[in-house]
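re: that chain from earlier
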Amino acid sequence: MKQFQKICALAEIPQQGARVVNPGGRSQAIALFRTAENQVFALDDHCPHKGGALSHGLVFGGAVACPLHNFKIDLATGSALAPEQGQVPCHAVEVRDGEVWLAL
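^ sequence. v structure.
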């Protein structure tokens, strides 16, 4: 069973934007992404292509484009969108009563 930790209010993540968190002093920061439909996704904050900070990328639909080379990552799966290849670790996230909870 996954244990969730309250991270922030949903309002603290900009729509079609991201917020970087580092729960528990992890070595790799996690980017929380919020879509225009208020869905929230959590991915490690680094692109598998050149290591760019995905949190600085453009969120569109259910994906984020890396700011370095426009490498597109599916927010739900962490998989690169074709024709690109690669994978970013995803983390379970829930929104409860306007608060964002992240599985550790």
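The CA atoms of residues 36 and 95 lie 15 Å apart.
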